[in-house]
Amino acid sequence: MMQAPERPRSSVPPGLRPSPARAAAAARLMAGSGESGPSARAHRLRHGARAAGLATTSGVATAAALAEKAVPWSRPSAPGEREGRPRHLRVVEPRTLSPAQRRRRARALLLAGVGLATAVAFALVYLHVLLAQRQFRLDRMNSQVQANQTNYQRIRLNVAQLGSPQHIISTAVGQLGMVQPNKVTYLTPSSTIPTALPHTSSNGTSGQAPAGDADWPLVKSQLAGTP
Amino acid sequence: MIRRPQAGGREVDKSGRRGRSTPGRYSPKHGLGSRGRIRAFALLIGVAVIFAVICGKLVVIQGFESASYLAAGGSEWEQTIALPGERGAILDRNGYELAMSVPQTSIYANPRQVSDPRAEAAALSPVLGVSQAVLENEMSQATTFVYLARTITDAAAKKVAGLNLAGVYSLSEPKRFYPAGQLAQPLLGSVGMDGNGLGALEYKYNPILQGRAGKETAQIDPQGRLIPGGVQDYQAPVAGQDLVLSIDEPLQYQAEQALAQAVVAARAHSGIALLMNSKTGEILADAELTMPAAGSNQPPAVPVTIPGPAGSSGSQTQPVQATSASSFTNVYEPGSVNKLITISAALQLGIIKPSDQFTIPNSYPVSDAVFHDAESHPTERWTVTDILANSSNIGTIQIAQRLGRADLMKFINDYQLGSVTDIGFPGESAGLLPSYWSGTSIADVPIGQGIAVTAMQMLAAYNTIANGGVYVPPRLVDATIDGQGRQHPVAMTPQHRVVSATVAKEMTTMLDEVVRVGTGTAANLDPYTVAGKTGTGLVPGPTGGYEAGHYVASFAGFVPAEDPQITGMVVVDDTPDYGAAASAPTFATIARDALEDLSIPPMPKQAAAPGVPLATAASATGADYAGAPIPGLSTTDGTNPATTPVTPVTPSTPVTTQTTPTTTPTSSTTLATTTTRPTPTTPTTLPPTAARSSPTTG
């Protein structure tokens, strides 16, 4: 009976490795088959993996890959090499939860989900209510704006109608009893008045009249009247 | 296990569970039998097929045919509201509204929602002022929208809302208002119910005024309210631009008032009164009135008071607004105002000088026609100034014969007669120039017969002299105001020189003499100096030739002559009076109002242009035969045309009169004076072979 070769150190990532129990079962199967050689070992590994419950495609593939990769490692490694390289990778037992823990976790997740959904639903309802309120407010404001604009236009029309010449004339003649003059008298500036009078300031000094006031002396003399 | 019978033959055990009705078909212990499996499989297949069909239909509805279903359903919950762009206002030069749009309420119905058309029509009829039968018919139609009344008053809209009728709704629509009533209506035009300009400026500038409509597509609930956040599409409306006219509202009113007075007093058919800014060509007033047709109920344009003879009663026929802007669209034979073109052309070409003397006989043969002046006179030696002051046809014809056809027509074209103005008014006429040149054309065209012009063209011709010989195109629109309130001035069109400044000055002096001692003394506005010319054209008859006793009386001029600011023209159409009697005093009235409103003071008198002789009183007989101004129209007799009554004409057809007392207490004293309207001298010699060679008078 051949002694099972020393199991090589695996370079397969921990997540892809079979559990130690399964690996041991696979090794036992391989040892009991009497086959030798890399292909026989691979076959045994595959078979053992299947027997150990690695029925998933990935599991089989992982076991097969492990078996295939185990071939180069079948040779004994040099003592120096084995001792000089630290083993920084190891197979970790997956954390398993008891059914009760799983149920509690599921219940907590369910409750959290329901709570979250309820909160989201209430938030959405609140947002829609808020939106509806704002929309009604906006509608009211739009209506007010439109009404005010219309009112402004009507007032503007009213002002224009009241300020029209026809209305002014009819009011002046019909209500106020005003009459248009029978004769227009024009006041003609006397030719003796010089066109540019010297301007005298309050302190008696002659100076230039301010802008816009240049014609005032001429006009004032006419407004004062002639006896 | 206690079993109790159940309807249908099945048994129910104590716990309520059904027992096997048929042993062997279902066994929880052993599962389905072969037949059961087949049936279950068949059921599964059936359900799968049905589910597949449903899914397929769902894909068709939601995918391939989604657009059509959306469109069909969209009409139920989507509403597209048209947002009309507010039509721009039309303003006068000072910003006063001549036309503006204000939203009003329109009433419409959805007949499919109207349960009782007859009852609802009966309720609406008195409120809307529409007959019950019409409303009932409208609300019985197989449609979802019918107008019941558009742009009703606010009070009526409130009453309709109070009725709370099923299927009757309201919406807001703009309505066009003219705050100054009918003022300048022929110029402004009108707007249809759909907001489109139908005539005049409203039509011409419709693209600018109208703006651009917007729309809002939103989801609505069954009550028609907007669903929050349901706005699908929003396109903001763009307000139309305002139009700023050169028209001055008060001047327009005063012009219409004075023109109405003239039309009534002169027993005319219609009239035109124009005022223009001499420097810029801006039209300040454009009054166009006509007497109403028989049976017309059109309200008077500007109520004027023309009392009739004592004891008469009844309402007075008042002029109404013309149906179109006749200053642009109507042509007439201008008569003697056209002499300005003839004489200025001859002066410009150096053919004559103002001091040249002409021998003016009483009659003057040209080709196969004999021409006369308006009044018989012995053979005179008149200068060009005298010819113009007396409005001598014979003198003008002699000048035109020296000028020649080609040069005369050249200057007629240079003064833009025969061309539409740059305003491009809708329906504007270019006038009528002689289509052929007969032997008498060299005589009748220079004196304003055989040629037809618009009042606007002749106004612009006189303004050319007022503006120192430079033709200034008339303009009616000063600027536009966009939606942001920015004002965009309308660019002035190019000007061109027609005659030299020297000739313009000489013409101004001669036109001064027309008003000082000639035919236009009724236009005198002392202390202002008025330069102008009267014209009396003959009215063509319907069967050819001219109608005796029917004239187009006109006056064109500018003031102050020293530095012209206002150019005006008055045309009184189809009147038995001469231009001096009917139009000159009206010109004086509107010119005086313009001078006051625009605060234009009288200017120091200037000397006559060098080389221009003044008309002598002895030679200037125009004022004698042109006819005194119609009483009541004069501004120089100490009375105000707007308030002074006019004594009716005797014994010819009296003006329709009324006894409404005037508002002027002093007018009663004026009434006591009875005057007789001078009967103009009808040209007695109308050449029978050449109707267009009829003489005209100033």
Structure description:
The complex is a heterodimer of chains A (227) and B (698). Chain A is mainly alpha-helical. Chain A is built from 7 helices and no strands. With 698 residues, chain B is α+β, with helices and mostly antiparallel strands. Helices cover 29% and strands 21% of the residues of chain B. In chain B, strands 6, 7, 8, 9, 12, 21 and 22 form a 7-stranded mixed β-sheet that branches. Chain B has a 6-stranded antiparallel β-sheet with strand order 15-14-13-26-25-24, sandwiched between helices. A 3-stranded antiparallel β-sheet of chain B has the order 5-10-11. In chain B, a hairpin with a 5-residue loop joins strand 21 and strand 22. The radius of gyration of chain B is 40 Å and the shape is elongated.
Keywords:
heterodimer, A: 227 residues, mainly alpha, 7 helices, rod-shaped, disordered N terminus, disordered C terminus, B: 698 residues, alpha+beta, seven-stranded mixed sheet, six-stranded antiparallel sheet, 26 strands, 21% strand, elongated
Shape of chain B: elongated
Poorly predicted parts of chain B: 1-21, 636-695
Largest sheet of chain B: 7 strands, mixed
Percentage of residues in strands of chain A: under 5%
How many helices of chain A in DSSP terms? 7
Compute the average pLDDT of chain A.
Answer: 65
Structure summary, number of beta strands of chain B: 26
- Helical stretch tally of chain B: 21
Determine the strand fraction of chain B and express it as a percent band. Answer: 15-25%
Radius of gyration from the alpha-carbon trace of chain A, in angstroms: 56 Å
Low-pLDDT parts of chain A are: 1-13, 32-40, 51-75, 194-227
Helical amount among residues of chain B, as a percent range?
25-40%
For this structure, the quaternary state is heterodimer
N- to C-terminal distance of chain A: 159 Å
Largest sheet of chain A: none
Instruction: Kindly report the average pLDDT value of chain B.
Output: 80
- The outline of chain A comes out as rod-shaped
